[in-house]
Structures are given as structure tokens and as C-alpha cells.
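pinning this so it doesn't scroll away 📌
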Amino acid sequence: MKIEKNIPAQSLCDLTISNLSVWFTDVEVLKNISINFKKNKVNCIIGPSGSGKSTLLRSLNRINDDVHKIKTSGTIHFNNENILQKNQDVTKLRKNIGMVFQSPCVFPKSISENVTFGIQQHRKLSKAEKTSIVEQNLKRVSLWPEVHTRLHQSGNILSIGQQQRLCIARTLAVQPKIILMDEPTSSLDPLSTRAIENLMITLKETYTVILVTHDINQAKRVSDHVFFICNGELIEEGAKNHFFNAPQREETKEYLKDEACIC
């Protein structure tokens, strides 16, 4: 299938996919996907349920490795290295390519311990470093004013929206280069959703963000570049304004009209 692209001149991220196909047992979930992600942008992946969006996202830091009978072909290059090679240091990879999941994954630890949990897997921290890292990253996700007097209380006392921001703070603490977000607001109320969306827009100043969302309106609000995936194939991609205002493929037009997939 010919893929429609409308790509303005802009910096490419150090993360590229070439001819990626993924099978679960005998089912081909992704079919010959090639993508150049855009640096310091919100790269948004949209498409109907079951189209392969999350499988694609989880391929970018090898989380799919744990899926039974998975088979992958093609390449994913990060910093000019194919991360699908068998000798890839997956722990190091996941430090550089962080992940925020659909539902908050708060550990049964204090708020401060949740923030430092990831980075302590990579190096020892002094008490002063821990204090600084906790404050810095909670401020970055606009959670500090709400929790600074409760840092030693369990992270589970927080609201779902606060827990998701806490998980983002934990991801930021390990200083990744790229942040993957898999429908991070799907379980949140509108106020918390807007807080996370505003945070994504701020984060792209420092990071490259790759977002999977089922919400077309959210993609319109936060994305810079959009990738439309249907039935495991990349149908069309483009800069946000052109993608939503002047889509080229009939499949894209139909999906944007009423979220029906005719692929």
C-alpha cells in the first residue's frame, strides 16, 4: 500500500522504524511499518481499536519481548543502533526510552520513593540527591504544590490523575531521551486529562514524545505530527494541520469523519 506523507522540513528524532512487521503466533499485527519520528515534537499515533497502535509503541522499548510466541522482522534504530538485536541492553534502552502506561502504575511505596525508584536501579543516590530529584521532578509535572507536605505517605493515597503525574515524574527522573505514552489519559477525568495534555506540550521542549491515543480531539489538541494506523498498516502521516484539514487517503477521511475504518 502506498503511504501518503506530507512531511515539512524539521529535525528527525534519533528513532526510526524500517519495514517493521510483528506477529503474535500466526497473526500479523504490524505490516511493514516505516516511520521517522520527529524530534522535540508530540508524535501522535491514532487508529481504531485493534489496529496495532500499542503493539507499535511497545516495540520501541522492547516491552513486547515478554509476549508469548512473538516474532518480529525489520529494524528499529535508536542513536544509529538497531535495538532489535539480540545483544541489546534492554535495561539501558528503557532508561533512554521511558514509558507511561494507560493506567497509573504506582508502587506500594511513598511518594518520594516512587519518584526515585527507577533511577536507583541505575545508580546509588545520596540523601541530598534523592531530595533534589524528588522536588525537581514533582515540580516538572506540577505535582509538588499538592504533595510536598506528604512525601513520605503512600503514593496510593493520591487521586488517579495525581498518580499518573507521579508516574510521569518517575519516568522523567531517569532522564530519558524519548517518552512513550500509551493512552495516558483514558482513565482520567476531564480536568486531569487537560493537565496531562498541557504537560505533554511542555515536555516536548526537552523530550521527544510519542503518544498513542484513541481520542481524535486529543490528537488535534496536543500533536505536532500524526500517524494513522489501520489494520496493522501505516495509512497516512503528516503535520497536524495538514493531516486533519487536508487528508489525502479515503481511509483517513472516513476515519476522521466518524472513526470508521474501511482499510
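📌 and the second one:
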Amino acid sequence: MLQSIPSINLMNLSPVLLLGILSMPSVGFAVENPASSRNKTISYLLSEEPEKAIRDNNLTKSELVTHEKLSSEGFRKESTVVGITASYSDHTNDYSIYNASSDLISDFDYDGFYHRFRVTMDADTIYASAHVYARLYLSYEGGPWNYYASSNTYHINGDSSLDSFAIETELTDGYPAGYYDIRIELYDADYDDFLLAYGPYDDASLSALPLEDSYRDDSGYGYYPDETEVFVTATGSMDWLMLTIPGLLLGIKRIAKGFNNYD
């Protein structure tokens, strides 16, 4: 016969025990199916590519951008502009993308799906120079295009290869493991005019990238953006203790209730 677990009398808990519980490691609660997707992005001229340590630091400090939940149902349109904020003008023969490539960077659990990757493009123009930026989209296994990042604005110079630009992204959460296609849309930075689109049918390196978010890419790295974390610094102040005890007692009360269910 199973013995019941005795109930906990909260009044018998000493301040020492309370402090001991406070010192326990924090517990994270992650959302398996978040209502949104999030990522961080940095961009830079490839000719001025920072060392990886600097890129790591810049990516860590970059803004965490929230998007609508990744859309995977339905079909995508290849010939129309995905972006809705910019106007369209006919620059068909004025601009082109000479080359694009993708690089897979980080796969913590070594399952073949990466949460960090880079897209590089070399855009050309018939003009001496032009001021442009790119909007990037992901398609999850053939589904609709989902906007995920924009580059900084930058100058392209004729057909020079020295102005190749890189957009490096870390998928934080909301991106299931799978194969993603990438679409690049190039825009005029001065007037927000759509210039051209370039995607998986133009370059195979933008097709079927094995990606997942960093929450799913779990190898004990410890970066889970949807966790609720509590960090406690012991100061020796009774004011600090009095501020933390009410919330702690609530948590202990819930634990005690759980134990009492075994009675």
C-alpha cells in the first residue's frame, strides 16, 4: 500500500529554509507552440565582415523582433511582390542580383538543422551607384512566404563585386525544424520602390535550408527565450528578504497543495 505524503505546514518553514529555496536554480517554462515567431538579425558588407566573436556579440545585443506566427498552410506566390509597404515601379532592366548564397552557421544539437544562418547577395545596377535595402522571407516546406528580416541600407556600385552584402539571422523561437526556402526582395532606399525579387528558382543556394529555432536546437546551451527566469543576488538585506517572501510563499503553497493531493 502506498503511504501518503505528509502535508507541509507553511508556518513551520524557517527563514533559513526560505533562503535555501531561493538559492535553487531557476526553472524555465517554454512555450512549445508560440503564437508568434521571433528572431535577431545583423547585416554588414561582406568586404568588412567582422570576426565571428564580434558578430556573436552584435547578434546578442541586436533587437529581438517579433513576427506573426509562421504560416505554413497554403501556397506561395513567386511572381508578385510580397512586401506591402513599398510601391512598385518598373526597374526590370536597371537592377539585378548577380549572385546569392547561404551559409549554415550554428547547429548545437548536431541534428542537421541550424538555428543561425547567413544570406549573402551581390546586387548590381546600370547606374554608377544606388542606395538600396533588402527584405527577406522564409517559406516553410513550400508554404507561404513569411517576412523575417530586413538589411541595413547600403550602396551598390555598378557591377562591382566589392559591395556584396550579408544578412545574418538567429531564429529564436516559433520556427519548427524543416526545410526552408529564402526569397530576397530588393528595394530603393530613397523611395521605397520595389526593384526585384530573387529566390530559390533563381539560385539553388536559397532552396531547402535545414533550419529550426534555437529553442528546438537544444544541446544544453542554455538559451531559451521563452523561459521565465528568476535571478537572485544575495545582499544580506532584510528588505530584500521581505520583498521576496510573499511570492515565495505562494509558490510553496502550490507545492504543498500538490503534496496534499497524495493524502
